[in-house]
Amino acid sequence: MTAKPFHIAVPDDVLHDLRTRLARTRFTAVSDPAYWAAGVDPGYLRELVTYWSDGFDWRAAESALNAYPHHLAEIAGRQVHFVHIRAERVEGAPEPLPLILTHGWPSSFVEMLRVAERLADPASHGGDPADAFDVVIPSLPGFLYSEAPQEPFTRRRVAEIWHTLMTHTLGYRRFGAFGGDIGSGVTQWLGALYPESVAGVHVTSAVITTNFQNGPPTADERSFLDALDAYSANDQGYGAIMSTRPDTVAAALMDSPAGLAVWIIDKYRDWSDCGGDLETRWDKDTLLTVATLFWATGTIGSSFRQYYDYPRNRPVPAITVPAAVTLTNEPAYIGYPRSLAERLFADLRHWRTPERGGHFMAHEEPGQVAGELLTFFRPLRSEG
């Protein structure tokens, strides 16, 4: 279970094929004159595809990604990719706390890189070197350079893999965990299954509990759940097809880079805190870095596994380790009451609704997320 160094290296013929396909893209007509009202605006897509084909420098993006320490490890017979950024150690400072950061969909390890820099070397960002973390950023199974699991993709199974990665492969006795979206569910399972190893859990999207055995939903909880149902009715089309016909839509996206890009950026715009203007949060180079990674690895289809296997997830057991929620500012969580989180976390020590940063909070607001993590974990370093 030892890890080996890894470098991203997309073959030239893959890039040539990508540019050829981009140059031959056929664009649809707009369905609604209102900008982005019916999905990704065809005019914006044409602009993005043109830049992807003729202006985007993948080799520069690849070099920047390879400045981080990438590794591969075999766990349960499958390859796991992760970035491992060791803390900047200062003489006299305590040993850094290990911290695993888990992304969601349609995201990647790229989401967590700027946060990780701040956590591994807080002194370089005006912080206390005693707060430094050893940061581990794995790619979810089936995403990019991590192989899809042989068994069903459940949040619990990913947590089991992550625990093996942290304790057996990397040799950490005790660590913290952070995540959003899928990563939030994985992080909660880490806390539920391994309280002896997990110092604390910090999430940005609190999983909606279905366990009301300790009392029916309060008025605030019922109001939120009703609003969530109403929102989901207009947002869940993408999830419905990936949950029921993942191979059908994956076939189209595997063959068309433009189709792949719109499937991803539609959610980057809708779920982020960008106010409808996608490039206030990410420039084209960042968006195309993520799209190129999915294209080059051919993993957009396997990233759908967590949707297809979602019914196999079970409710998370009681989570007794210290917990924190920094709630995303995205439509799905507007009005989320703290009491729902308290049904999930027996020891909720940190609760914040900063109203900045959406579904991809770590990518959108890395300074904010780093600050939240430093604050929450600071007193927990000495508790174990």
Automatic annotation (TrEMBL):
The organism's lineage is: Bacteria, Bacillati, Actinomycetota, Actinomycetes, Streptosporangiales
Name any Gene Ontology BP term.
epoxide metabolic process
Keyword terms of this UniProt record: Aromatic hydrocarbons catabolism, Hydrolase
Domain of life of the organism encoding this protein: Bacteria
Identify which residues the record assigns to the active site. 181, 307, 359
**What Gene3D superfamilies is this protein classified in?**
alpha/beta hydrolase (3.40.50.1820)
Molecular functions per Gene Ontology: epoxide hydrolase activity
Please list the residue ranges annotated as the Epoxide hydrolase N-terminal domain: 4-112
Could you say which protein family the record assigns here?
Answer: Belongs to the peptidase S33 family.
What's the name of the protein?
Answer: Pimeloyl-ACP methyl ester carboxylesterase
Q: Does the keyword NAD apply?
A: no
Q: Which organism is it from?
A: Actinoallomurus bryophytorum
